[in-house]
Amino acid sequence: MKILSVNTSPPKKINFKNKIVNTSIFKEPKNNELSVTKNGLEGDRQADLLAHGGINKAIYAYSYKHYEYWGNFLRKDFSEEYGLVGENLTIDDFDEKNIYIGDEFKISEAILKVTQPRIPCYKISIKMNEKNFMKYFIEYNYLGIYMKVINDGKIKKGDEIELIYREPNSMTIYDISMLLFSDTNIEKMKKAASLDFLTDEIKQRFNERLAKLGHYETI
Length: 219
Prior knowledge:
By secondary structure, the protein is of the alpha+beta class. The chain has one domain (3-170): M1 Pyruvate Kinase, Domain 3 (Beta Barrel), CATH 2.40.33.20. The chain is 25% helix and 27% strand. The protein is built from 6 helices and 13 strands. The protein has helices at 65-74, 123-128, 133-140, 173-181, 186-193, 200-212; strands at residues 3-8, 12-16, 19-23, 28-30, 34-37, 40-41, 59-63, 89-91, 104-107, 110-117, 145-151, 153-155, 162-165. Strands 4-1-8-7-11-10-9-13 form an 8-stranded mixed sheet. A 3-stranded antiparallel sheet has the order 6-5-12, with no helix packed on it. α5 (186-193) packs antiparallel against α6 (200-212). It is globular, with a radius of gyration of 17 Å.
């Protein structure tokens, strides 16, 4: 697997429906080598730290192979628009069905650990200039991957990304996304809520849903 683009952005104010919205979703490709630490990528900041960023969501990665799907779906050419959905790392083939919670990836000296799928907000519809895009994005269910930084380093476009560790008996990013938005399987939710390296944010969602159904085992 290879990094096709490294993308960053500071928060920017934009006009949306006659309101000022502060967002960092308009990422721009960087050609220079950037430092990556537990706080994220050099030069990158989040506008809404409740929804994005923080230690467990320091890096957001998205697979370039999804660009073709969105190009066909929206009838636009996105082939050169790196940072399309606001990702920090555009990776040639980073398939949510093959990536598990707790996976560790090495990029040069940096090591990143998979923590959760993305939970999209309305700003992705602004970015894509399509009012229903958040709905389409969730239905597609390839939401991209958040990772925490467990070893600092420097990364750049063209670097190889190598899987160096897989957490046993884990669940894929795709499966977690399905449980968040469409799958109601109780046993799968219990398993997800017990995963060591899934973020507390996502575990809480599952625990609250399970509690409403009368299941308190994972609380």
